Amino acid sequence: MSMLSRSRRLRETPFTEGVEREGVKAYTVYNRMLLATVFESVEADYRHLKEHVQVWDVSCERQVELKGPDASELMRRLTPRNLDKMQDDQCYYVPIVDETGGMLNDPVAIKHSDDRWWISIADSDLLFWVKGLALGAGLDVNVFEPDVSPLAIQGPKADELMARVFGDEVRDIRFFRYKRLLFQGTSFVVARSGYSKQGGYEVYVEGGTCGMPLWNALFEAGADLNVRPGCPNLIERIESGLLSYGNDMTMENTPMECGLGKFCNPTEDSDHTGLAAMKREKESGPVQQIRAISISGDAVKPPTAAWPLMKDGMKVGQVTSAAWSPDFKTNVAIGMVDAKYWDAGMQLTVETSEGIRSAVVQQSFWN
Amino acid sequence: MSMLSRSRRLRETPFTEGVEREGVKAYTVYNRMLLATVFESVEADYRHLKEHVQVWDVSCERQVELKGPDASELMRRLTPRNLDKMQDDQCYYVPIVDETGGMLNDPVAIKHSDDRWWISIADSDLLFWVKGLALGAGLDVNVFEPDVSPLAIQGPKADELMARVFGDEVRDIRFFRYKRLLFQGTSFVVARSGYSKQGGYEVYVEGGTCGMPLWNALFEAGADLNVRPGCPNLIERIESGLLSYGNDMTMENTPMECGLGKFCNPTEDSDHTGLAAMKREKESGPVQQIRAISISGDAVKPPTAAWPLMKDGMKVGQVTSAAWSPDFKTNVAIGMVDAKYWDAGMQLTVETSEGIRSAVVQQSFWN
């Protein structure tokens, strides 16, 4: 870890007061905003997340709002995913690609109506791409970053905690669907989603004033549920195969390389950006793809740069995220592996920052 | 200060090895890349910068390359600045605005030729805007982030140090001009520029392999000049009125609000984005503008969020950067002030995180 100098440019959130009061130990910077990474310890936070319920300040999942008559048309140009059957209460994971098929972001789109969408972004200024594209294409749509800060409630007791604060109606929300529910007289988008596989919700908090009242209400209501502050957990997300844009994939990678081919099903008449590049790749198949990888030996120190994956002295890929899994008693990792070497069971070596280890390509992620 | 969790997403640079070896004490994150903020202490680094020479890893000033027949046409659409007389060895500070006149970035453009430009960016993904705009407008130009990492050599002894490494030719480079000069047989763009007013250069290091050899050569050649590692210095940049995108201005602000009106002189036939919005603002004048502000009392702790500027109980602006200046024996600050209150000598109060102080609008910055 290093020291972080704070400044206005690394934006605080409506919940920063609560995060600091609860003893955050470290941050990362995500979309130029503070995102907690550790409270007790990465391992203790992991154990707690899998057994209880946590409140996560994920305000850094900034929104790009598309508002106007051409909002849906613009959405269709942005993503290869077929949106035709998407309903007004649905959330879709939508890879966004440029004209070469390279990934610019892997956000979740929230459909309010045909003329209003939010895109809940990963760590890149997708706003600039959407604005530039809309302007260049002369579409009648307003594109901006609204004042919305998501708060995630994650873990096996999330249903119980959320029901206590938002009412039993939350239990009826289906996966990647949302309802508008009231908290202290104000209505919020509450979705069954989140960056863990332990179950839970994301509340899209509009404006700053409701932030701390909602934070406090969740902690008060959940005292007997052992509610704690939390954050996306490195170990749990690797076990679960949840990719991190900027870590596991960049603009250099295509959705197919990221194993996101199932989200690339454009309509017959699609004119989304990157269509031609994507068609070429579909014919030839991707040359590399993301795989779950186990790394032998005792706990590795998570990588701060890509670790080369080697076979017979040749580089055949790279590991981009790795951590010791207490539950699976191995180092779990995410890597990009060349086609000839990506089959499950393939024995490779990985050049970690602390030396060479053996590594094995897995059939699937752990969770 | 807080702790920073490192990951691949917060990119290391070709010089990170040197920065860490020299004992960096803290980082910020800029364009998803590590940028040092402190070596000895902010005050000691400041004193040294003003008297000797420093080597700064500013790789985070990523480049956006425009290459192709329409590169200059795209540049003209991007900025309100008149580029007609710009020569092939010049660097221009070019505000980039969206269709509402809001600033997306305040980079330095480097002209290689009519069909090849670099834009050396502040902290936002300008690449996405430029790509989106080029695609939308159907321009024949390739837009990408090349593998270029600027290294700045700043301070009064920068000429001497650079002459020892690149030859006496560097002394002839005029302000905001560049030459291609050799280091160990490789040619680099060397510009007389940098994010301080203590004089110096920026070397645009192409590729990673020359990074540490150049870093080491500068430290070896400068031992008797008291060369040290450094970084943009909070105190010096405020004294000098060097604005920081994300701190002192955001998308919410126009170039005129930022005092950058002199860089907004489009040609008669310009069709740059934001022209209409900018014309409206020129007629009415900006409603607020950036000012140098002194804050009374002993040293303030630099702000991590905007501090309200007040007059008679009413908010009339905000302070976004502030630090104690050892040379001017006052807290120097940068703020945005409403038109009625921006005249030099205006007495205001500022709500710092540690209490209310008196503040005075200055005629000009300190340096």
- Unreliable parts of chain A: none
Order of helices and strands of chain A: EHEEHEEHEEEEEHEEHEEEHEHHEEEEEE
Rg from alpha-carbon coordinates of chain A: 21 Å
Could you please say which CATH topology of the largest domain in chain A applies here?
Gyrase A, domain 2
Oligomer description = homodimer
> How many helical elements of chain A?
8
Going by CATH, the homologous superfamily of the largest domain in chain A would be Probable tRNA modification gtpase trme, domain 1
Number of domains of chain A: 3
Give me the secondary-structure category of chain A.
Answer: alpha+beta
Provide the CATH top-level class of the largest domain in chain A.
Alpha Beta
What does this structure look like?
The structure is a homodimer of 367-residue chains. Chain A is α+β, with helices and mostly antiparallel strands and 367 residues long. The first copy, chain A, folds into three domains: 16-61 and 147-238, Gyrase A, domain 2 (2-Layer Sandwich), CATH 3.30.1360.120; 63-143, Alpha-Beta Plaits; 287-367, Aminomethyltransferase beta-barrel domains (Elongation Factor Tu (Ef-tu), domain 3). The first copy, chain A, contains eight helices and 22 strands. In chain A, the strands form five sheets. A six-stranded mixed β-sheet of chain A has the order 13-14-15-12-4-16, sandwiched between helices. In chain A, strand 13 (178-183) and strand 14 (186-191) form a beta hairpin. The longest helix of chain A has 12 residues, at 126-137. The two termini of chain A are 28 Å apart. The mean pLDDT of chain A is 96. Chains A and B meet through strand 1, strand 2, strand 3 and helix 4 of A and strand 1, strand 2, strand 3 and helix 4 of B.
